Amino acid sequence: MKNRLLWVLPLLLFLCLLSSAKDWKTVRFGVDASYAPFESKAPSGELVGFDIDLGNALCAKMGAKAVWVENDFDGMIPALQARKIDGILSSLAVTEKRKRQIDFTNPLFDTPTRMVAKTGSNLLPTAESLKGKSVGVEQGTVQETYAKMYWEPKGVNIVSYQNQDEVYADLRSGRLDSALQDEIQAQQGFLKSPQGQGFAFAGPEVVDDEILGKGSAIGLRKSDQDLRTALNKALQEIHQDGTYQALEKKYFDFDVAPK
Amino acid sequence: MIDLIKQYWQPFLWGSPDHISGLAMTLWLTVVSCVMGFALALPLSVGRAAGPLWMRWPIWLFTFVFRGTPLYIQLLIVYSAIYGLDFVRNTPGLGAFFKDALNCTILAFTVNTCAYTTELLTGAVKATPRGEVEAARSLGLAGSNLYLRIILPSALRRALPAYSNEVILMLHATSLAFTATVPDILKVARDAYADYYLPFPAFGIAAILYACLSLTFISLFRKAEQKWLRHLPTT
Known about the structure:
Low-confidence stretches of chain B: none
CATH architecture of the domain at 23-182 in chain B: Orthogonal Bundle
Radius of gyration of chain B: 21 Å
Distance between the termini of chain B: 42 Å
Shape of chain B: flat
Distance between the termini of chain A: 64 Å
CATH topology of the domain at 23-182 in chain B: MetI-like fold
Oligomer: heterodimer
């Protein structure tokens, strides 16, 4: 009896190992559908956007099925670690801080950071040009970190807001001289709307790999290296066969592919 | 957790000389708005309790409006709506005042606590025992002398325990300050949370800081009560 038990234990252990080397038939992606044109909800309730199409295309290449789980952006990393989802596909910027907690695939797209100000303000996104001016940023964004690190010590007044809409509101009221955020978000969410009349991008895109990140990618658990390899391979394939470029054209009139 | 504390202890406590944040900002908001609110409420409460009708009604209306609407909305109106008006922006003094977020926040908090304190003190003034007033009158005290020497000292003593509550509530209400971009304790807690995704340490530290402040205020008021309410039976 005892002997037989001793046999069974290693066998069970082996079975466990086998089952953990999961064969990815379905991949559950966490998404916060509030960030058009990357992820949002159509009036029918269906999820739409560049990220959604990319995720579906990647899974199709892997021969897997993409399952979309809606989650608040705040709770995305905890949900990933609690195994409620297998990946975060929600415009998640790759940053050093996040890398301590999770792993990333290769970047899916790279949307630059750019400053918005009154048309003809002649402001540039540099500490010298902005000295004594007020710049609004959204709390918790990479742009906030950037402005606080490089501009604030040199006499630029950096003001953090609870959300991006409040930044635009104070930019319009004149409390702020400029606002720093994602370029595409600014274009789609502000400059193209009636509220954005009289405002424009000020200066060139802000480039900084360390803080602003190297684009957005899918966030994964550090233990799921097999999934990371599979997704990276699929990503390379959709770049090569033109699927990526077709999707890109559907949403943007400029290049968002990572450099 | 250790990293979070190492990185955020200074913003949590006082920030830097140029950018006050956290505990120092919360304390400043509470103290300034309570002191100014109290100073305004003192004459208003006398006017409301004993003034002529044309004085009583506007004060009643003021306290009704500011006690009848949420502080959050008052703050939004002072911060966003008023500065959105063209004539406010274009009047030099007003424009400069309302452009500054801290001014707007302190104004909203002051007016709000002033309304509550006015009601509280009015009640205490009205509750002055008739005998006390009659005794004072019989000794020849009248008008402002009667108020300054008899009614107000006794009313303020009576109002002290209730006023300590108002101060604690005001302290907690300052957690709305980040709505107007003022970096109080809660703002730093949100920063720390967004940075490390550790909700318990981030908000836990904020809760502990608020509790410490509350405790300090409570013990100060207890000292004051021991001094000025010595004549009352201790509970």
